[in-house]
Specification:
Shape: globular
Structural class: mainly alpha
Order of helices and strands: HHHHHHHHHHHHH
Distance between the termini: 15 Å
Number of helices: 13
Radius of gyration: 19 Å
């Protein structure tokens, strides 16, 4: 890691680093747990679909950023979609699975704001999140808190290779780098809203690959949430400057400029 990255890491506030680290193991565990309790389609719908809502709420609570009427309408559609999915879908766990997925969306929204406030470059963010997540996962596996087929030697190597390629290179490196760059240049609201394209892809792909039915309830929820995030992203206010006030407030006066 570049020496400048170490200096930026030391200069970063602990609260901001804690928000950035939420993208690692904490979010993954909530995401995986929610997917286990519900379905792939519902997981892909709720987690990215509710992130714009949670980002707007957190921005209002932190910096009193008000939401425009058009954004309020878009957020209302997202809330309606979440309620619809809770009423008509949810899997065997029912409301419990919905709650876990909502928690995962909240954690990702907090991470988004953390990235917007951090003075770390994308590579540093990836390294910090990855190293911390690996160390935490090894600790949980070796202590028996979480089961691990890798440590017991029963893991299927082909499955591990495929998962490492998709989750490690695709999600861990490429998507994280792209998301950090987007947040740094566009602010927190627009990248969060743009993530709503993934519910459509997840729900559609889950039908042929996993045999999950796309029923009327989930289809209606998907339409509401996707419409809400599309309106949110296309609103004129979304194209404004990044979260300048939030970024300025987060930089300590004594922090060196890079």
């Amino acid at each position: 890691m570049d020496p400048r990255a170490f200096r930026a890491l030391r200069a970063e506030r602990p609260a901001v680093l804690a928000l950035v680290l939420l993208a690692g193991l904490p979010h993954f565990l909530l995401f995986a747990w929610g997917a286990h309790l519900t379905s792939a389609a519902l997981t892909g719908l709720l987690v990215p679909g509710t992130v714009p809502l949670f980002v707007a709420v957190l921005l209002f609570l932190c910096v009193r950023r008000r939401v425009s009427p058009r954004h309020l309408l878009a957020l209302a559609a997202i809330v309606a979609g979440v309620l619809t999915s809770a009423l008509f879908t949810g899997g065997p766990a029912g409301p419990a699975g919905i709650a876990v997925l909502l928690a995962a969306g909240l954690v990702w929204a907090a991470y988004t704001l953390g990235v917007a406030r951090a003075r770390l470059d994308p590579i540093t963010v990836i390294v910090v999140v990855s190293v911390t997540s690996v160390a935490s996962a090894l600790l949980l596996a070796t202590t028996g808190v979480l089961p691990s087929t890798l440590l017991t030697g029963t893991a299927d190597l082909s499955t591990v290779g495929t998962y490492a390629l998709v989750q490690g290179v695709g999600t861990g490196l490429l998507s994280t780098a792209c998301y950090v760059v987007a947040v740094k240049n566009l602010g927190s609201s627009l990248p969060a809203a743009a993530g709503a394209l993934s519910p459509v892809l997840t729900a559609v792909v889950a039908v042929p690959l996993l045999g999950e039915p796309l029923g009327p309830g989930l289809g209606f929820a998907l339409a509401l949430i996707t419409t809400g995030v599309a309106v949110f992203a296309l609103s004129p206010a979304s194209a404004s400057a990044p979260d300048a006030g939030l970024l300025t407030a987060s930089v300590p006066p004594s922090a060196p400029n890079r």
